[in-house]
Design goal:
heterodimer; A: 5 strands; B: 0% strand; globular
């Protein structure tokens, strides 16, 4: 090919270029005005990945906490069918209370602690918190939570900031981003644009458990089953190996156990009951864990809960039996499985706890073990 | 200090106006720019400033010494020996520093593996060496100066501050373009009045560079990382991951270059064009005239041509091409995958050179419809050959490359891996369409600045889309540019 196909920088900006830039900036301001005029609930976008953290933050700041809040990782998100839980509670209690699932994919115990604090300082406090746990929430020893700052109060943020060494880049960029976040709604609600694009691409309307709706998988992937997924033991082993440290250990971090204890303390101080619940996992995942890990996890939960006087509900206490047909894959329940788990959770945990109110402490559940 | 950080924006908001104010005094302007360049570099790791000083000082002194010898009216054999000796000092120290920091562990561990495979027991000799950022770039830039002085292509720079600024000018210090003394040094010797046109042009380049980095490169990076980080299960989806990396590496590196050029322009300096629509190349020779132009011309002028270029017969030409490209590959990083990548690029150049007469014979006339189809087919085929290169470049290990090739050859339509979902497809498709849409316009108009040809209102809309895209879809975290590691 001859060199004539090469492009060069020929055209140059004219004297009217600032006007073009000004038009660009004015269009940005117009977009900001549009964003500001739409209702708050419409501004909050939902994406099931990391965007969920932002949605939880916006939702709680705008509308306060739901009466019943569910905390946990994506396993917690998929294990509870929020509309069903809401319906059962409303029917049993005769009270149209609100339910929201604040579980976020990959969340760790320290982030849950700050999320809980945010729920407790919101304009409407929760009446009950259901903390759905698996080893994943404690996994890892390093202090590398990404979203604790997002949920933290200004005072807490200064504390968190003080404990971590920041680079000069972070020290300059973070306050600027913070101001942008607080004042510029287009930037604050940028997730909404992402979810709009996702909706257009998928042809699926976002469904948010944070707003009391089904999860996206529950609504659109309800037919998926582990038994038909084609996943093998090797796939699960690879997944578990990916969670191990350099020495091949699956660490249940001491810092994260401490965060769990701190979460109980803040709930007790606020007078909001919290219940810890073991999340159902497929047998093939439990088998893929290093020998004794799952029992060690359960023992830690029992000890921490007993010391704090917080109920810990294990699966055998719920009296349900789940098979591979009830899982999407090895980690998450599908809609069918989630309905079974939710019904038991509502009838044996949520309703009794709500009936007893904030004074109903943990004795019923913690006393059994 | 990353180009895509608020720290850098704040830094620019101070540096650019002060540079404008100091344009009337070249001495003060250069001193100021040198100071802020060292601050910029020191923000990464102030300890490595000493290496930058050392490299600057050695090449400055070698330049001065060579200048004295060049000034002799009669060059006899003794003078020539001294000149060669001075050049050797510069080469040995510059390449020595680069070699130690970048390649020591690589060569030692490779030798270690070789000896182990032969049954010898050796102690582990590798050291905990941190690679100083930008070392490959400023080493090549300083080397080119000394060689140019030796050749008499550039006059000696006697002012240490001017020379130090030539080595460490902050926009191009950590990832190029690798500038040459004859083009670049004179810009520091004179006042460079900054026109409004240069500032607008610079602003647009910075914006477009930021867009390419934060919106395109950083969004497709997760797809590339997932693809290269997991075991390949299907040829089609492996190829999909390679496409993602092709887009990522281009937008990451050319985005950095655009920001560097835009920043320099706003201060009255002109950095060379480093990318000229490389994915619109129809052969390897053209690709290297379009991709990382400052490196490829450096390798041509200081390695390929001194080795004999194409002047010593066909066999020697092929050997020279291979040597140049293998060393070019190794310049990118101390790993066998980079050596493999360089070898592959060298092989492509050799095969193309060998086939050129045949291709010229079978190619239809350029103006006919057959000729147009031929041109497009060449672009598509060669793009895929570049992608094969990116697979070698990005792979974690040579074994990983073998796995990917095997899967593409034996199981092209295998089952979809977990990291592929509709969202990743949409991200890749929209980023690809956006990038190639703009580039097709640049290619057809043969003008990289074709944005300035469109009507004012449309240009306003383009600025809105760039700014809005960065705000809404940009990854505003702290993602480093890929080429910083080289």
């Amino acid at each position: 090919m001859s060199s004539s196909t090469f492009s060069s920088e020929k055209a140059t900006p004219g004297p009217k270029e600032p006007l073009a830039i000004l038009i660009g900036v004015l269009l940005l301001l117009a977009l900001e005005l549009v964003v500001r005029t739409v209702p708050e609930s419409w501004r909050i976008g939902y994406t099931s990945a990391l965007g969920a953290y932002y949605e939880v933050k916006h939702q709680v700041e705008a509308f306060g906490a739901a009466d019943v809040g569910i905390l946990g990782t994506s396993r917690g998100r998929e294990s509870v069918v929020v509309p069903s839980l809401q319906a059962i509670c409303a029917k049993e209690l005769g009270d149209p209370l609100t339910v929201a699932n604040y579980s976020c994919a990959g969340i760790r115990a320290r982030e849950v602690e700050y999320l809980t604090k945010m729920l407790l300082r919101s304009r409407k406090k929760p009446r009950l918190l259901l903390y759905v746990v698996s080893p994943r929430i404690l996994q890892g020893e390093e202090n590398n939570e990404r979203f604790e700052q997002l949920f933290a109060s200004d005072a807490d943020r200064r504390l968190i900031g003080g404990s971590k060494k920041k680079t000069l880049d972070e020290m300059i960029s973070e306050p600027v981003l913070d101001v942008l976040w607080r004042t510029y709604k287009t930037f604050r609600h940028r997730m909404r644009f992402h979810s709009l694009l996702s909706t257009m691409a998928r042809g699926q309307v976002p469904s948010s458990p944070v707003k009391g709706e089904y999860t996206m998988w529950q609504r659109y992937d309800s037919g998926r089953k582990l038994s038909r997924s084609g996943l093998t033991k090797e796939d699960v082993n690879r997944y578990v190996e990916g969670l191990m440290n350099g020495k091949g250990e699956y660490v249940l971090g001491a810092q994260r156990i401490k965060a769990l204890e701190d979460t109980f303390v803040v709930c007790q101080r606020a007078g909001v009951p919290i219940v810890l619940i073991e999340v159902p996992l497929a047998q093939m995942l439990k088998e893929a864990y290093p020998r004794g890990l799952y029992d060690r996890f359960l023992n830690i939960m029992r000890t921490v809960c007993k010391n704090a006087g917080v109920p810990f509900v294990e699966l055998d206490q719920l009296g349900i039996s789940l098979t591979d047909e009830d899982f999407l894959e090895y980690s998450h329940l599908n809609l069918e499985g989630a309905q079974i788990f939710t019904k038991a959770l509502a009838e044996k945990v949520a309703v009794p706890m709500l009936r007893r109110g904030a004074l109903a402490k943990s004795s019923e559940w913690s006393g059994r073990r | 200090m990353l180009f895509n950080s608020f720290h850098f924006i704040l830094f620019l908001l101070i540096v650019i106006p002060v540079t404008w104010m100091l344009q009337s005094s070249v001495k003060w302007r250069n001193a100021f720019l040198l100071l802020v360049s060292y601050y910029f570099y020191g923000c990464w790791d102030w300890r490595f400033l000493s290496l930058l000083f050392l490299s600057t000082l050695i090449n400055y002194l070698c330049g001065l010494a060579l200048g004295k010898k060049n000034g002799h009216s009669k060059t006899n054999e003794r003078t020539e020996t001294k000149r060669r000796f001075i050049l050797a000092i510069s080469l040995v120290t510059s390449l020595g520093i680069l070699g130690f920091f970048k390649y020591f562990n690589f060569f030692v561990s490779s030798a270690d593996s070789l000896l182990h495979s032969l049954g010898f027991q050796v102690n582990d000799l590798t050291l905990q060496i941190v690679l100083p950022i930008g070392i490959s770039f400023y080493t090549f830039q300083t080397l080119s100066y000394t060689v140019d002085v030796y050749r008499g292509d550039v006059s000696v720079e006697k002012n240490l501050i001017t020379f130090a600024l030539y080595v460490s000018f902050f926009p191009q210090l950590v990832a190029g373009p690798i500038e040459r003394a004859p083009r670049f040094l004179p810009q520091f010797r004179r006042p460079n009045p900054v026109s409004a046109t240069m500032v607008y042009d610079g602003f647009y380049l910075i914006l477009w560079g930021l867009f390419k980095k934060t919106v395109i490169a950083d969004n497709v990076s997760s797809i590339a990382a997932a693809s290269f980080g997991s075991e390949p299960v299907s040829g089609l989806w492996t190829l999909f991951g390679i496409y993602a990396f092709a887009i990522q590496i281009y937008c990451d590196f050319s985005g950095y270059t655009d920001i560097a050029r835009g920043t320099a322009k706003c201060m009255g300096f002109d950095l060379m064009l480093n990318f000229n629509l490389p994915y619109f190349s129809s052969n390897p020779r053209e690709f290297w005239a379009r991709w990382h132009i400052s490196l490829s011309t450096w390798l041509r002028d200081y390695l390929y041509i001194p080795l004999g270029g194409n002047r010593r017969g066909p066999v020697r030409t092929y050997v020279n091409l291979m040597t140049t490209m293998i060393l070019g590959g190794l310049w990118h990083g101390a790993a066998w995958t980079f050596v493999l990548w360089g070898t592959y690029q060298g092989a492509l150049l050799c095969v193309h050179r060998g086939l050129q007469p045949f291709l010229a014979r079978i190619a239809p006339a350029a103006n006919s419809w057959k000729g147009r189809i031929w041109s497009v087919a060449c672009l598509v085929v060669f793009f895929h050959l570049i992608c094969v290169g990116w697979m070698l470049f990005r792979a974690e290990s040579v074994g990983n490359v073998a796995q990917m090739v095997r899967v593409m050859a034996t199981n092209f339509f295998g089952h979809r891996p977990g990291w592929v979902n509709l969202d990743s497809l949409v991200v890749l498709a929209s980023c690809g369409l956006l990038l190639f849409g703009v580039q097709i316009a640049q290619f057809l108009t043969k003008d990289l600045n074709c944005i300035f040809r469109i009507p004012l209102w449309s240009r306003g809309l383009a600025y809105f889309l760039l700014l809005g895209g960065i705000i809404i879809f940009g990854n505003l975290g702290s993602n480093e540019f890929i080429y910083f590691q080289f």
